[in-house]
Amino acid sequence: MLFSFEIEKKSEEFPLARVGIIHTPHGDIHTPAFIPVGTKATVKALTVEEVKKYVGGEAVLANTYHLYLQPGDEIVKKHGGFAKMMNWQGPTFTDSGGFQVFSLGQALGHGVSKIATSEEISQREAKEETTNHEKLAVIDDDGVTFKSVIDGSTHRFTPEISMQIQHKLGADIFFAFDECTSPLAPIEYQQEAIARTHSWAKRSLDEHKRLGVSESTGKQQALFGVVQGGAYETLRKESATVLGKLDFDGYGIGGSFTKEDMGTAVKWVNEILPENKPRHLLGIGEPLDILLGIENGIDTFDCVAPTRIARNGAIYTKDGRINLYNAIFKNDMSPLSDDESWYTHGYTKSYMHHLFKADEMLASTLASIHNLKFLVTLCNDAREHIIKGTFKEFKESFIKQYYA
Fold first, then answer.
1. Tally of CB atoms within 10 A around 327
2. Is 95 considered catalytic here?
3. H or E element, residue 315
């Protein structure tokens, strides 16, 4: 089966919201959907059976930069692609390595994420003056020179090299090489960055077409362009317009956002991008941001947050996020999940508190299953409510309870 996307129903309440199906050579993804992240061809602390059976994940996303460094794209190719290597039977994504341009470059030492508040952005100059970290990624118009986070060795990524690596990794859906900018970057730098991203998008597309089918799977892959532009309306719209005219199979929305305007920035973009192609919001996993993304036309999401916070004892509940390390849970006999159909319903918060305090590996596994299930279910519920025409009521009810 070749890659395709069909819209099953458009929202009656929000013009951009929709439910659909992404068809890939290795199965379907019912949208909107949250995609668990398996950075190094493993969803941390989970087997693929757990991801499929207990989480309900329909696809996984791996990281190009990290798999290139370890075990190496040639080793992945010998396995027949990263999905076969990790024994995952279903649709797959890889990012381009573009996020590492941000995390190892502008973000290094700043302690800033992809989303910043207006207050953080206003303090940009003070932060820059107090930061002396050596950057591990240096950008030029042709590409990026990285220092390995493993051994400090030097490596070079260009759009062409990113495409060549991702063809070996063999994902059904992968992304053009782009520059993810810091939310603290001024508009002048954002303008330079989207010019580079647009140039790299065209080069990525040309190289993808030259390479043909995946070297490891023999299947045709779908290439998504990545819209950038930070929190600036003019730049976001410009990027969506430029990339929307290119022959991509779908689109990722990447880069940085102002926390207060994330949903608005997504709306600017999706009002311009082709309606008949899927849209993926890269690296966003906060429940409110997911709901705002769905409302404004996002089809798929990925983020490392649910498993990262799980390993530190935090879990999502309908009443908000809690930390199971807290002493209040030592004698809490209530189940981890109120839903009896969830695997984690069989475990108490008291037991989880014990596992974390005892530094038992099972704690991270159960908490990760729970958090991923929470976000996968959130998207599934949103899908059902769009079909029923009750998404607005569902969103408002969820937010009122979760952020009370």
1. 8
2. yes
3. strand 314-317
Lookup: tokens for 146: 């990285």
Q: What are phi and psi of 140, to 5 degrees?
A: -135, 175
Residue pair 353/298 in contact by the 8 Å Cβ criterion: no
The pairing of beta strand 4-10 with beta strand 18-24: antiparallel
Mean pLDDT confidence for 274-278: 98
Residue 25 has pLDDT above 50, yes or no: yes
Quickly tell me which residue has 């290119």 as its tokens.
246
Residue 59 CA to residue 346 CA, distance in Å, equals 25
Catalytic residue among 73, 249, 289, 302: 302
| Cα 217 from Cα 231, distance rounded (Å) | 38
- For residue 59, the Cα-to-chain-centroid distance in whole angstroms is 12
Contact 391, 14 (CB under 8 A): yes
Q: How many CB atoms lie within 10 A of CB 345?
A: 14
User: How many CA within 13 A on the CB side of residue 260?
Assistant: 6
pLDDT at 133 over 70: no
pTM of structure: 0.94
Band (180; pLDDT cuts 50, 70, 90):
confident
Walk me through the domains of the chain, giving residue ranges and CATH numbers: 4-303 (3.20.20.105), 311-402 (no CATH)
Among the options 95, 172, 178, 289, which is catalytic? Answer: 95
Closest CA to 365 of 55, 5, 123: 55
Token pair of 394, please? 């569902």
Helix (H) or strand (E) holding 289: helix 287-295
Comparing C-alpha atoms, which of 165, 120, 158 is closest to residue 142?
158
Q: Where are the alpha helices (DSSP H) in 46-158?
A: 48-50, 64-69, 73-79, 82-85, 98-101, 118-122, 124-129
